[in-house]
Write a structure and sequence with these properties.
It is built from 15 helices and 17 strands. By secondary structure, the protein is an alpha/beta fold. The chain is globular, with a radius of gyration of 24 Å. Bound molecules: 6-O-phosphono-beta-D-glucopyranose (BG6). 6-O-phosphono-beta-D-glucopyranose binds next to loops.
Length: about 500
């Protein structure tokens, strides 16, 4: 069984359709979308007469585009050990993707571009499902609104004669609550919600999808998944990369906007949601929404008390010298943009009242590690009162999202010998021990699900806005200049102040 490259639970055939990629020459298309399409070809999950139309700015022959994409694909597979490496191109399947590629050149704000696109789309045989079109916005976020408006004006969003029109919109969806609302308004003026697929690529990860399977597919865990048995939860997304070549984007964005209302909140809601009545898209998204709506608002004093922001200073990450964030290209010399954020959230509902959720994410840290760690409450201890085992070993259940994907459970066991002494032991499951995994980009499932019309792994308009609503007070307080911005050395586990956030509650982060 292949895990990383499996595509949803649906076994039905994928309908005939055309994929239109805006931003065909961009980084996302080269690094992720084309490899994902190639993987789908290998899995025989592309429609028989699939068409791909790329839209890009440069005037060039389609052959040149095909060559460029092939070169990127070759570089990509030769990145030995690269997470998404496909271990050598299988020409037969790659040809299925590149040979299908057509090209429209033109500016995405120019009406003529949409006229050309419209002409090309008319060439598909509507009777055989060729009228179905999936638009993919792999362009910079400021173009999401304009492209949608142009599609609307050109009549390209209209569903006629039983054919569907859908749109995939990349992240970032807005940069605060107001802009996210405005973008939702623009999008929903042209498309119905059912036609819109807002991406959060974390939902393409098998380990993230598995959170629901783990919780609701097993009888063992759900009864203890609540405030009676759980002490607290830690969600960590630690990266070793710095801002690399993304200084312009990142300095205007920061760790909070870049990671929290989207990726971290996906992990958070998957973990905390109530069981949905089915795996239908809206049933799942309703339950996630309830979690977000139940988060105790952070405002004023609470922001200063419950959040920590920091920036990396120079240091060494895995033996490599790293300059300070402010010394990175395209970053302001006096930048106050955070590259690390930690926060404490409380969910005010029956299941979670009183259980803190600590979230942290940062760049240029000591180790790449994305995990959800659940600490269970201690036993009453009376039995071990007078022994060396008085300090009980905490029970940790850790969902290891990446790398070393798996799940582990820590508990205390008696150390053999005449004395009563407990030590921490671990039971573990690693994906690679059980499943034959082939590397994937994580976009395979998402593209496939959009083609078959399953929106379970995509964000609904209200989910996006609820995420922004939680972080908006933090953005407001920080942008108003309140609250310190701390520093941490590149290659460390983050700022001391993030440790203090947990220490105030008598707790500590798990080591990175
Ligand atoms: C992106 C962020 O959305 O997610 C990046 O913009 C971040 O800053 C990336 O590095 C992390 O994704 P992954 O899949 O590499 O963990």
């Amino acid at each position: 069984m292949e895990t990383n490259v499996t595509v949803s639970q649906h076994l039905c055939g994928v309908p005939q359709c055309t994929l239109v990629i805006f931003g065909i020459s961009g980084d996302l298309t080269h690094r992720l979308l084309m490899p994902a399409l190639y993987n789908l070809a290998r899995l025989k999950r592309l429609p028989k007469d699939f068409r791909i139309i790329g839209v890009g700015r440069s005037a060039m022959a389609v052959e040149r585009l095909r060559d460029d994409l092939t070169r990127s694909m070759q570089d990509f597979v030769s990145e030995q050990g690269g997470e998404a490496s496909v271990g050598g191109i299988d020409q037969e399947f790659w040809d299925q993707v590149v040979r299908r590629l057509e090209y429209v050149s033109g500016h995405i704000e120019d009406v003529a571009t949409y006229e050309k696109l419209s002409q090309l789309l008319k060439g598909s045989k509507a009777a055989s499902g060729g009228g179905n079109v999936l638009f993919y916005l792999a362009v910079a976020a400021q173009f999401f609104g304009p492209v949608v408006k142009h599609l609307g004006k050109a009549g390209l969003a209209r569903e006629e004669a039983g054919a569907w029109r859908r749109i995939i919109i990349e992240k970032p969806f807005g940069r605060d609550l107001q802009s996210a609302r405005a973008l939702n308004r623009d999008v929903l003026a042209v498309f119905r919600e059912e036609q819109v697929f807002r991406i959060d690529h974390f939902l393409g990860k098998e380990t993230v999808q598995n959170i629901m399977a783990f919780r609701f597919g097993n009888g063992l865990f759900e009864p203890i998944w609540n405030r009676d048995r759980i002490d607290h939860v830690q969600i960590t997304v630690a990266e070793i990369v710095g801002v690399e070549r993304r200084g312009v984007f990142y300095d205007a964005t920061g760790a909070l906007r870049d990671m929290v209302p989207n990726h971290l909140f996906q992990l958070f809601t998957m973990l905390a949601m109530e069981p949905p009545i089915s795996f239908e898209a809206d049933a799942v998204r309703d339950k996630k929404q309830e979690v977000l709506m139940a988060v105790r608002p952070l405002s004023g004093e609470a922001v200063l008390r419950e959040t920590v922001r920091a920036q990396y200073a120079e240091g060494t990450v895995r033996g490599r010298a790293v300059r300070s964030y402010r010394g990175e290209p395209n970053v302001a010399a006096a930048s106050r943009t955070e590259t690390y954020v930690a926060l404490r959230l409380m969910i005010e509902n029956w299941r979670w009242a009183g259980v803190p959720f600590y979230l942290r994410t940062g760049k240029a840290l000591t180790r790449r590690n994305t995990e959800i760690a659940i600490q269970f409450k201690q036993p009453p201890l009376a039995l071990f009162r007078d022994t060396a085992a008085a300090d009980c070993i905490p029970n940790w259940l850790v969902l290891q999202i990446q790398p070393n994907e798996g799940i582990s459970l820590q508990f205390g066991a008696k150390v053999p010998g005449p004395d009563v002494r407990l030590d921490a032991v671990k039971m573990g499951f690693l994906y690679k021990d059980y499943f034959r995994t082939s590397p994937s980009t994580g976009y395979e499932t998402l593209i496939y699900d959009a083609m078959i019309g399953d929106a379970t792994l995509f964000q609904r308009a209200d989910n996006i806005e609820a995420g922004w609503r939680i972080v908006q007070p933090v953005l407001d307080i920080w942008s108003g200049g309140q609250g310190s911005i701390w520093t941490y050395s590149a290659g460390s586990a983050g700022p001391k102040e993030a440790d203090d956030l947990l220490a105030k509650d008598g707790r500590a982060w798990r080591p990175l």
